[in-house]
Amino acid sequence: MSSAEDARTPGRAEDAPSTGRAEDPRTTTYWAQYAWLPHANGPVVEQDVLISTGSGGRIARVQPDSGPCPPGAVRLEGLLLPGQANAHSHAFHRALRGHVQVGSGTFWTWRDTMYRFAGALDPDRYLALATAVYAEMALAGITAVGEFHYLHHAPGGARYDDPNAMGEALIEAAARAGIRITLLDTCYLSAGFGAEPTRPQLRFSDGDAEAWAVRADALRPREHARIGAAIHSVRAVPAEQLGTVAHWAARREAPLHVHLSEQTAENDACLAAHGVTPTRLLADHGALGPRTSVVHATHLTEEDVELLTGSSTTVCMCPTTERDLADGIGPARQLASGGSPITLGSDSHAVIDPFEEARALELDERLRTRTRGHWTANALLRAGTEDGHASLGWPEAGRIEAGSLADFTVIALDSVRTAGPAPRLGAEIAVFAAAAADVRHVVVGGRHVVKDGVHTLVPDVPGALRSSIAALGR
User: Which of 249, 255, 300 is nearest to 278 (CA)?
Assistant: First the structure.
């Protein structure tokens, strides 16, 4: 490395010189000091990697061991990884941070607080809040989010002039924050088995699954947005209507997500109402399979595990939320060993840190079993990248290779958390040491969304969070 290169600030991006004309930001060459790349025998960390992005925001070429950063390339020091996929999000839950950590309580008392914040949201306020939340995700290295969206209507259930105004606000928020979104439009019809929605839940409900499907049909994908479906839970959608939602997703080959067995109370109520577990109920109504992701899956029977793994259903774990709500530790290792892909989500956003979610999957399992080494660092990174994107309907993302979407993030290797280990241990550094604070750069579709730790579209993310949460007045 030359003395001029030595003088550059570590981790700083050196932009290509101006050409005097507007450049397509998606036709750029990036030079990564180190990158985690796919290999026939498993991912490895390569050095001096040139990544050329082409039209359409895809990777055109990846060249490891390319030598020093060439003139005109954007220099990225640190470790380059595929962009992280946040497979399960409720954006408005970010406003609860701090409030729901006061005192004790249960999942059900936490839910009452959540309803109070939900009641203050309208499309404009949701746009402001979600833009700030998605910008926070970008700063954490997240390039795609699965938004489990059930806040459809006005308080009391009145329809907005555009019945999808709240969903459209989320799609626009992702665009303003520079990340991709899969809007998982959620069917939520009842307060429990055979129970009418409570007043706070009226804004979630379309009345029945057919009316939900009509409204969801009006949603349209964009370059940065895809549309999927969700069943909130078996307690929130009557059994005879589960198939309507599953069929809607199947006809569109769209992702289908569902909360499953997060609480033992849900299992007990399902057994009392139907004589079967929630997993069996979903299976009996055609809601499991490779396009389905079940979220949490904390309290499962052996038969439940067999139904999920036998159908290749994906399981999304949200360790920081599951810890925060005292849900328990689900059988993630057993599910993964049986053939269910594992993905990761930040859910209620007690924290937004994909590296914490990845290591928590392993560390929680160590606490449960009192043994170490259930997942490799490579496997945990895949859960947060390739498998996460696939579960959201973005199978062309999550890998650094030609033809994939040019979505990647760079973490510093010289912070107080990451300094010391050899770069060849980059996967282990990322999973077991790094934090969201170590993210230096994020590129989505070839566009530089986070540069030197600063969001290029939302420069003051903390300020945006403060103002949008204060506007809720809770």
Answer: 300
